[in-house]
Amino acid sequence: MIRLAPLTAILVAVATPAMAQDAPGYDFRERTRVLAFDPGRFFAGRFEPMIAIRYMGDDYDYPVYALALQAGCNPAEQPEQRLDCGRRLIARMVRSPYDGTPPRPRARGQRLFGTLTTARPDSDDALRRALDAAALEWVEADVRQCAPAMAHLATLRDVRFTLPVDLDKPLFEMVLHADKVRVDTGDYLTRSHYEGWAKPGTAGAWADAFAKSLEGCWKPASAPVPWRAAAK
């Protein structure tokens, strides 16, 4: 990420190298984002998660992770699974694999796309098989049993979903090649949305910190992987 603040050389042209083109007919990168990194696919039988987060790296939208939080009972579950679901709060996450600690989060998505480029899937079925073999992390956590996550979740009421515009500033701040966070929250008829870089004080920064607060609480997910879940 390159951050310019204040901007004093706005006339300098910035060239972004073109991404290698796929053979016409099937874009496995975009289909990976749809099939594996759409939080709406993480809970069968539910339309909108309570919180949905997608972290994408750089201008190329390298998929780093996606997270969904769902409260309450799930209509798709068996009756015996619904006995104690009234206060349930479950988070599920898919994350691109990486051995060790990546130098930057986007390296996870770059590594995944590199693996898929080798496989060269040319259909959704072929992509699903490639994703099965790609060792993505698919995990879940009982958030009510994860103290750091519950503490962070309690600060959600203070999150700002809009950026203030300061008309008194003669110059503005510009961020290039930043990783991007999309977060949607809501319940019933109310939804809030943020999409942008994880600027401190924004919903994007809050969302990424919430994902980090769940480290140490994840376990293998009990649900099918999202790219094998039934389409809604």
Largest sheet: 7 strands, antiparallel
Helix/strand/pairing category: alpha+beta
Number of strands: 9
Strand order of the largest sheet: 8-7-2-3-4-5-9
**H/E element sequence:** EHEEEHHEHEEEHE
Oligomer: single chain
Low-confidence stretches: 2-23
Average the pLDDT over all residues and give the rounded result: 84
Report the sheet-strand fraction: 15-25%
Q: Count of helical segments?
A: 5
Distance between the termini: 35 Å
The whole-angstrom Rg is 19 Å
Give the % helix.
10-25%
Shape descriptor: globular
Word description of this protein:
The structure is a single chain. This protein is α+β, with helices and mostly antiparallel strands. The chain contains 5 helices and 9 strands. It has helices spanning 28-36, 106-119, 124-132, 147-153, 203-213, and strands at 2-4, 51-57, 62-71, 89-95, 137-142, 174-176, 180-187, 190-196, 219-220. The radius of gyration is 19 Å and the shape is globular. The two termini are 35 Å apart.
Write the layout of secondary structure elements.
Blueprint: E1 2-4, H1 28-36, E2 51-57, E3 62-71, E4 89-95, H2 106-119, H3 124-132, E5 137-142, H4 147-153, E6 174-176, E7 180-187, E8 190-196, H5 203-213, E9 219-220
Antiparallel strand pairs: 1-6, 2-3, 2-7, 3-4, 4-5, 5-9, 7-8
Helix pairs in contact: 1-3, 4-5
In short:
The protein has 232 residues and is of the alpha+beta class.
Give keywords.
seven-stranded antiparallel beta sheet, single chain, alpha+beta, 232 residues, 9 strands, two-stranded antiparallel ribbon, disordered N terminus
